[in-house]
Every structure is written in structure tokens, then in C-alpha cells.
Amino acid sequence: MKTLVFCPVLWYHFLMGNEKNTAASTPEMVTISRAEYDSQQAQLTELKLQNQWLLEQLGLAKKRQFGTSSERLQESLMDQLSLMANEAEAYAYGTKNATAEQVEVKAHARKRQSGNVLDIVPEGTPTEVVEHRLCEEERTCDTCGAVMAEIGKEVRRSLKMEPARFWIREDVYYTYACKQCEAETGEGNLRKTPKQPTLCPGSFASPEAVAHIMTQKFVMYSPLYRLEQEFQRQGLKLSRQTMANWILQASDTWLRPVYDALHRKLCRETVLHGDETTLQVLKEPGRTSTSKSYMWVYRTSGCAEYPIVLYEYQPSRKAEHAAAFLKDFSGWLHADGYQGYHKLPENIRVVGCWAHARRKFDEALQTLPKEKRQESLAATGECYCTRLFQLEQALVELTPEERYTKRLELEKPVLDALLVWANEASAKTAPKSALGKALHYLREQWPYLVRYLEDGRLELSNNRAERSIKPFVMGRKNWLFSNTPAGAHSSAVIYSLIETAKENDLDPYRYLVWLLNHAPGLSRTDEVWAESFLPVNAPQECKIPKP
């Protein structure tokens, strides 16, 4: 069959339905082969999919830059949520009239601040009283000349502060001699005052100074160069290199054994959470300064006797690092969808995160125009996930055994309905679209996502680990990178002790001062030494004062 020369312009007008141009001109009929026509149609379909994908990426970029970080549903979708949830549960139970059991969330009220300074300061805060009285001449009555008597007073309170102070401490150790022995025998008997152990031998570092520097960098996210500038404005010429040396030496000598003790206790737990984030280390042997390294975090779950948060630096994201850190652990591990966690030994059972699944649907929802969101498949998927969180919120106060039973009763039907819906929606959704990726994540991670039903101690999400990794991420935004692997390892140790202290309601600075003051004076012959300085064993003086 003969074919005419293909005209792209005419073909564009034909496909796009440009009526104006078609009416203005009368182009000749173009004949092409069926194969060519099918090829052009396939190309057009591919271009439409690419265009949709690009629009989705543009929407997500705008959301990240200008939108809110909250994943809560809009008010316009809440009505749909309630209807959908009831329908899902009805479908799962096999009846249209079935509804979910009503759950009540415990109400709470926030105490309104009165504006009184006494409402915000802790108990025992010292008070400086300054009395303002009239002098004797000013108290003389202008009418009769008598001295006026005090009949009342008005108290105005204000909060006073002062910048950090620094001073020099001199520890003087005296030597004693027996003069009588010296007179009788010619040899004096000498006795020296025992010297207190030093934090960093050969330096003028004190526990208070090192604790302050650690707190400023790892709690307040202030880089050492900024601390150096702050000290210089106060007349103190303390270099960032000196501060870095203090941090490394104190961390390796006194904090590392406590970190190892926390690690041993962490591995004796049965439920953990894990996560990781990137870190740049400039002088990693055998790697460029732009190479991507990782800071891993592991922490206890809500069922633990007391919380433990541990960080570990590793040059890569390989599963072998997690396996090595958790080699003495056996139990449940909450994690995200990273495949490395699924390569862990069989004695570590990974539990998926529903917050990540909901986030995928939220991202797909944000790519749609506002007028199309309410009736979209992305909204339906997000509603299913949100329903699970709503049901779970009402089970917080239950025992693990009670929670296990209630989950099977209330949440499993929703999960069953969600899986049916996801399979049906996947068949009519482009795989590379934002919704297609959300559905793929849900179906691929399904065995791990539903695993929380197996034990009442397990949680619906991995938000605990994400909250614990956030302080490191905030610090990284300020100090940007670690100079050496030694610095990265030291940072992991310090972050671990600080975040564990915070989780146990301790003031990080006071806890570090207590540890660094007392640790050098004790023998380190066994594990008992390190366990005595765990945050849970800190004295009352390290507790955060309550207003």
C-alpha cells in the first residue's frame, strides 16, 4: 500500500482537535499505515504519561517548598473519611449496615498561662527582693507635717538573666613532712594530698566546660566556630580545635563505656525501632569528601522499662551494619520500607510503618488540583490509613493483651477492605504516577505493614525512630558535616547519651556534668562501672525542674 508523506503539523491538529485551524483551512487527507498510526498513538500516550508525571513532580516540589509539612486530611475530606470507613468495615463484615465500634479519645485541656513569672519558673528559683521606699523627707505630709505610715505595697516581678560566666579554679595540693623524723634520722617522712583525677590529662578542661560545649553543639545545634566567636566576644580565646579535642577525648574515655552499656541493655529488649539518615564526612579514608555516609538510630519502644536511644555512624547504608549492631538482639524491629532491613537475620522480624504508607498517598493527593482531590483514589487511600490511626489512638491506654484483641476486632476488617481496594485501584492506575507508586509501596510492604497485628506491644508506625533522628538532622543543618570518622563516631556517642537523658527527663547539661565529674574518680574494671552512670541511675539533681 502506498503512503503519503507524513505532515507533523497536520497530524498535531488532527489529534488535538484544533477546530479553529481546521475550519480556517482545508488540508488534504493524509493516509498512513496502520503500524505508523499505532506507533504515533503509543508515543502520544507515553507523552501524556510523561506530562502527568512532570506535573506531579512540580506539584510535589511546590508542596515541599511552600506547603505545610502536616499530613492531616483537609476538612473537605473528613466527611468522605467517615463514610468510606464505615463502608469499608461494612464490606469487610459482609453487611452494609455494619458500623465501626465507637471509640472515644481522652480529652485534654491546656493550662492557660496567666502571665505571671511564677508560672514559668521551676520550684526553688531564687528570688532577689529589692525594696523601694520613700526617704524620710518624702514621707512627710504636706498638710500637717506628720510622718506617713506604710499602708500597702505593690509587687512587680520580672525575669532576670545573665550571660554564661567563666572563671579559673585552682586546685592546690600540699605536701607534708615530719620534721621530728627529719631531725632524728635525717630523713623526713613525706605525705602528699591525693590529687583528684583529671578529665583530660594535660589540659585545663573541666567537666563543666566540656559539658557546656557538648550541650551547645549537640542540643542547641551551635557549631564550634560559632561558639568560638561567642567566647571571643566575652574575651575568652578558646579555639574550636581545642574544643574539638576536648570533645573527642572525653567522649572516647568516659562516655563510650556508658554507650556500650546502653547498647547491651538495648539488645536485651524485644521491640525496637530503627531508622537512618545521611551524613557527610570530609576525611573518610578511601572516599571522596562528597561521599554519602549514614547515621543510624536504634531505640526502645513504648513497652520498654525506660527509654534508650542509640546512634551509630557507618560509611554506608548496607544491611550488614544493622545486622552487626543488632547481632545480640532477637525480636521485633519497626522500620520503614528500606529493603536493607528485610535482609536482616530471621530472628529479627521487621514491622512496617503505616505513617510512610499514608505519606505516599498524601504526596499523590497533593499533585491533584484541589477540586479533584475529594473524589480521588489518593484521598480514598489516605482515608483508609487515617482510619487506622484514629482507631489506634483509642487503644493507647489498653494493656498489650487488650490491644491485641481490639485490633483484630476493629482494625483487621479495615485492613482487609483496604487490600481489596488497593488491588482494584492498581489495575487502573499508571505505575509511574504518584498514586501508582503509593499503591505499589502499599502492596509490596503489606506483609510487614500488617505484622503489628501479631503483638499488642507493636506500634502502627515508626514515628518514634523518626522523632529520635530529628535532633541529629537539625544539628546537621547547622554544622553541615563531620571532619573525620572519629568525629562522627564521637558525635554518635554524645547524641546517644544526650537523647537518652532527655527521654528519661534529665537535663543533658546536668547529666553530663555529673557523669564527667564522678566517672574519672572510679575504677573501670568491669561493666558495673559503666552501668552506674546510665541515665536511669542519675541522681535527682539531674532531673529537669518542673514549673
Structure at a glance:
The chain is α/β, with parallel strands linked by helices.
Account of the protein in words:
With 547 residues, the protein is α/β, with parallel strands linked by helices. Among the domains are: 1-38, no CATH class; 272-479, no CATH class. 47% of the residues lie in helices and 7% in strands. It is built from 19 helices and 7 strands. The strands form 2 sheets. Strands 5-4-3-6-7 form a 5-stranded mixed sheet, with helices on both faces. A hairpin with an 8-residue loop joins β4 and β5 (309-314). α8 crosses α17, α10 (354-366) packs antiparallel against α12 and α10 packs antiparallel against α14. The termini are far apart. Residues 1-6, 8-13, 18-25 and 81-101 have low confidence and may be disordered.
State the end-to-end distance.
Answer: 91 Å
Low-confidence stretches: 1-6, 8-13, 18-25, 81-101
| Largest beta-sheet characterization | 5 strands, mixed
Average predicted confidence as pLDDT:
84
- What percentage of amino acids are in beta strands? 5-15%
Number of helices: 19
Radius of gyration from CA coordinates: 34 Å
Please state the structural category.
alpha/beta
Widest beta sheet: strand line-up: 5-4-3-6-7
- Overall, the morphology is extended
In N-to-C order, the SSE pattern is HHHHEHEHHHEEEHEEHHHHHHHHHH
Helix share bin: 40-55%
Number of strands: 7
